[in-house]
Design goal:
By secondary structure, the chain is an alpha+beta fold. It has one helix and four strands. Helix content is 30%, strand content 36%.
Amino acid sequence: MLKESDILFEIGDYWVCKSKAWKGYEVMKNGVTHSIRVAQIGYAGEIGLEKAKSEAMKRAKNDE
């Protein structure tokens, strides 16, 4: 179970968290009852976080 403190970045309906199952990050999208994973970023560390942030920003912009 994720907590709000696990959110590393948030923009619009999208947010980024560190994957608990493997090294990397996940981009999630808020839904009506729960969030769903819309992207997996297979890079660890700062590079992975920047790629995940970029993906979330791209998806949020496409939703406008």
